[in-house]
Amino acid sequence: MEVGVFEGRNRFSELVEAAERGEETIVLKRGKPVAKLVPINDAESRAAGVRRALEIARKAGARITARNGRRFTHEELMEGKNEGRR
């Protein structure tokens, strides 16, 4: 599917739903393609989740190390991971 910038802005929710169904949308500016809205596949989604988990663990580990002045145990890491959560 191809849409102009103005139409794409007005139909954004619809275009996101189309992406969820696996459809790609090309966004045109003055008739020329400038962007593509594409579905994210499961592998990309999992990789992003792993990157987020590793970043959370790194930050928690840094907080524990700063607080204790030493390396941390697995139990301390798990406790630190949940610090500040609601």
Walk me through the structure.
The protein has 86 residues and is an alpha+beta fold. The protein has two domains: 36 residues; 40 residues. 58% of the residues lie in helices and 16% in strands. The chain is built from four helices and three strands, in the order βααββαα. It has a three-stranded mixed sheet with strand order 1-2-3. A hairpin with a 2-residue loop joins β2 and β3. α3 packs across α4. The mean pLDDT is 84.
Class from secondary-structure proportions: alpha+beta
Number of strands: 3
Number of domains: 2
What's the total helix number?
A: 4
Report the radius of gyration as a whole number of Å: 21 Å
Secondary-structure element pattern, one letter each: EHHEEHH
Helix content: 55-70%
- Quick one: overall form? elongated
The share of residues in extended strands comes to 15-25%
Query: How far apart, in Å, are the first and last alpha carbons?
Result: 42 Å
Unreliable sequence segments: none
Mean pLDDT: 84
Question: In a few lines, what is going on in this structure?
Answer:
This protein is α+β, with helices and mostly antiparallel strands and 86 residues long.
Q: What attributes characterize this protein structure?
A:
elongated; 86 residues; 2 domains; 16% strand; 58% helix; three-stranded mixed beta sheet; single chain; alpha+beta
How are the SSEs placed, and which strands pair?
Layout: E1 2-4, H1 5-10, H2 12-20, E2 25-29, E3 32-37, H3 42-68, H4 74-81
Parallel strand pairs: 1-2
Antiparallel strand pairs: 2-3
Helix pairs in contact: 3-4
